[in-house]
What we know:
Elements: H1 10-20, E1 36-40, E2 44-50, H2 56-59, E3 65-66, E4 72-73, E5 79-87, E6 96-103, E7 106-111, E8 114-119, E9 127-131, E10 141-149, E11 171-181, H3 183-202, H4 207-222, H5 231-242, E12 252-258, H6 269-289, E13 295-297, H7 300-309, H8 311-322, E14 326-328, H9 343-361, E15 367-370, H10 380-386, E16 391-394, E17 409-413, E18 419-423, H11 436-444, E19 454-459, H12 470-478, E20 487-490, H13 493-502, E21 508-511, H14 527-553, H15 561-574, H16 586-613, E22 620-622, E23 627-630, E24 636-641, E25 651-656, E26 660-663, E27 674-678, E28 684-687, E29 691-695, E30 701-706, E31 711-712, E32 722-727, E33 747-748, E34 751-763, E35 765-773, E36 779-787, E37 793-801, E38 806-813, E39 820-825, E40 828-833, H17 839-842, E41 847-848, E42 852-857, E43 860-866, E44 871-875, E45 878-885, E46 897-909, H18 917-925, E47 929-931, E48 934-936, E49 940-941, E50 944-945, E51 950-957, E52 965-971, E53 977-982, E54 989-993, E55 999-1004, E56 1006-1008, E57 1011-1016, E58 1021-1027
Parallel strand pairs: 12-13, 12-19, 12-20, 13-14, 15-16, 16-18, 17-21
Antiparallel strand pairs: 1-11, 2-3, 2-5, 4-11, 5-10, 6-9, 6-11, 7-8, 7-10, 17-18, 22-48, 23-26, 23-47, 24-25, 26-49, 27-28, 27-34, 28-29, 29-30, 30-31, 32-33, 32-38, 34-35, 35-36, 36-37, 37-46, 38-45, 39-40, 39-42, 41-44, 42-43, 43-46, 44-45, 50-53, 51-52, 52-58, 53-57, 54-55, 54-58, 56-57
Helix pairs in contact: 1-4, 3-4, 3-5, 3-12, 4-5, 6-7, 6-8, 7-8, 9-10, 9-15, 14-15, 14-16, 15-16
Bound molecules: zinc ion.
Amino acid sequence: MYHPPVLKNRRTLLERSEKFISDTYFTDCNLRGRLYGDTHQLTSLSVSQTAKRISYSEAVQQNFQPCKVGDAFGSTWWTCWFKVVLKIPEAWRGKEVHLRWESDGEGMLWRDEQPVQGLTKEGEKTSYILSECLKQNEPHSITLYVELACNGLFGAGQGSFIAAPDPNRKYTLQKAELVVFNRDVQELLTDFEMLVDIVKMLGEEDQRGYQALFTANEMVNLCDPTDPDSFSSARSLAQKFFSQRNGQSQHIVHAMGHCHIDSAWLWPYEETIRKCARSWVTVVRLMEKNPEFIFTCSQAQQFQWVKNWYPGLFSRIQYFVQKGQFIPVGGTWVEMDGNLPSGESMVRQFLEGQNFFKAEFGQYCKEFWLPDTFGYSAQLPQIMQGAGIDRFLTQKLSWNLVNTFPHNTFFWEGIDGSQVLTHFPPGNSYEMKGKIEDLIKTVKHNKDKGRANHSAVLFGFGDGGGGPTQLMLDRLQRVQDSDGLPRVNMSTPDRLFSELQAESGLLCTWSGELFLELHNGTYTTQAKIKLGNRRCEALLHDVEVGSCLALSQNVGFSYPTKQLQELWRLLLLNQFHDVIPGSCIEMVVEDALEYYKEIQKTGSRLLLSACHALRSTPWMEVGSGTAVLNTLSWDRTEVIALSEEGAQSRLALVKVPCVGVASLTDLAGSVSKVTVTVQADGTVRMENGLLQAVLDRMGHLVSLLLVQTNREAISDGCFGNQFVLFDDVPLYWDAWDVMDYHLQTRKPVVDVIKPVQVLSSGGLRGSVTFSLRISAKSSITQEVILDANCPYIKFSTQVDWAEAHKFLKVEFPVQVRSSNATYEIQFGHLQRPTHRNTSWDWVRFEVWGHKWADVSEHGFGVALLNDCKYGYSVHQNIMTLSLLRAPKAPDANADMGHHEFTYAVMPHAGSFQEASVIQHAYNLNFPLRLIPDMNNIRPWSMFTVSSAAVILETIKQAEGKNNSLVVRLFESHGSSVLAVLSTPFPVKEAWHCDLLEQPNYSRPAEVNDSKVSLTFRPFQIISLLLRIF
Ligand SMILES: [Zn+2]
């Protein structure tokens, strides 16, 4: 029965209830103060500290020293193994008994040689249930181990969480004891918390909020914290409130446990392995107690780690996957960056990921899952679909700085027209806590009200791991169907997307990229990681092509399947969304560069052995000559250096057929030579019959003439190759962000150390060099290179870089007027405006692209090519390539040191498609490779493609099929074309297949002898499974 009403004072009633459950105020007399009962000391506590991450079996062999609560341990990145010996008092029979453990750092509890639960205060996991109701026959004397990682959920940033880690931090043990846990108090506290939050979140205009207010107030009246017998009447009042049901039209929340674990970020890869174990073992434990609990989990790499290091836990996970509670999602090897990986890398993310999920769990993922990356390529919808996925869950676009993305549930259409059903949880978080606030936000912020009546709520601590807690489950359980709130179903991604699909008639479509209006510095930060990625992508491509050439010719050749898979997996790992963007700490950078080194070393060896295997074929033999390998699908005639000794190296002009090999024959006599002339005014003119360039003493490109049309590419009175330096101080996210206002701080680099001088005066190659001072500590040395027969001029650049919060770019003001510039993306290209009409346009002041960008008017254009850069901008007629940044967090030494990179400028007649800009950008990135000790009898091609629009991107051995190849082609011009793929081999079988290499047996390829006819839509990717030997 309710107490009679008092004053109409919402505030006092609300705060009264809040104080009743406060952990700060009135704990001497409130309900919170009764959560724990008697305590009991541990029998003994001792510790062993180590700088390494060691296994349990190794750890328990160590020497343990006595320690006590209040002691400090560490420093950062160390591990403390605590040995906990305890004895539960007999008198606690019938009680719920916990080990209460509160410490800094991330803990993992081990019992009977197995990990059993995470114990991380930051993740609200501070107690381990020893017994739910102590019985006589239960063990009372127990020995446990706590493995404490000396780092927080978010690493150990000094001062700010994204600052470089503090290596000297200490980690304190604050509590380690046995305690009686009053479950009935906990249940009542959760009731109160939910009611109080309903009052607050529904506000003063909602009558349901007032009903919650009076319910909570009356519960305080009924509840005497000292008398557990009084709890039940209070609980029934709460239950009565919660069980008042919703109408049928209410929004439906699909609650799913989740734990976003960055594969490396403010901590190294090695720690992530333990983060996965700590988080997932806790999830498994929750599943044992809560059979309705569902958890979604992405990233095959993390599963692989747990499989290797925690096989017992992995088999429990497999069990819960089969039960449908632990749900693998995403389909990729890691949650990769959505912008920078190449098209083929993205394919491999899915290939390695989906194959892993299939092999370990018997199922492919149905959803792509990428909540936390810094933009999403417009080619992703097609790649997803090729990997058997037509649903996508993401979140990050809610971080847009300027424009609010207009949809939460919509169809996303890629550059080829592929569509995927896409959902952004409207609550704008992938780490909710199951609170009322999360539910209200989800309904309120849904931008597709009336169109989509279902939304995801992902709950669980994330980024640094942690995951869901029992409390989160208890909260959600109370409001499954409670009037005034959305209905809450513990659900799966499959159920959510099926519901959305079933009612998708009113959904809108977003076409093109999902550009994140933030974190645009990540296209440039950590230049060596970007370089490593680009080089290794090219090398693995070449190893696969070379190995397929060898396979086709030499029955004894063994395709390096396993080594290639290992190298690909390393490359894919480094594409994680805090590694390739450069938003990670220095330890991660060191690991990443080490992995690239490993790929380079092993990859080069594999390529060489593939090439050597070609020497016993009808067209190759061992000999004193040299052959040249072209792994690209067009014939190339290029100047090649025969040794690596800089300007003095011997050069040759060679012609090599597509996907093939030719002997090194110097064709120097057949083309016009390069001339380099120092002119009377001190400028230098370089010509090769295609281009005529003039450089001033500072290395400025004052003129660049396309000889064929006598067309000047550089804007009148302007300088191309103008280095510019900007102040680069973002608002917060240092390594991540470059803000719009940096553009106002532009300063040309004008201090000459060494003026232009001729390095190579002509012949097959002309080159000049010069040096500029950026500051007292930083300088640029550049070699400007013009080769015979080459339609672009190359800028081979070395920078010694020791700046703080500066951004180095290079500008080319070009004589072209166009409202759009074109940028290469994965398997295609897209356009972005060169003007700043709307907020959607001007916020793209720094954008990403891959190997080239182009700005063209009808009949003429200029392309900017590069061999390892990703950041661009084209504003009006000024094309800018972003070169180096100098952020100080989270890596205080980011990008400091020596850098080498090359970019090139290519003026062209006609469109960039007609001028083969795409092919030339490939040429710059995939150098012709010399094969020593080999005599070539005749030039030979394994494949030719009839259409210039179609690029044969990939040739590899089919997964699990030794006698078959997969070839992947894509339409690169944005046109509908017919193309014929030819090979000297008789094609025995040819099937269209998807990106997972599953043949479509209803769709044999159209084969005529050794020619396969293909029809392409704009930007279409076609994969074929071929048996040719
Ligand atoms: Zn993340």
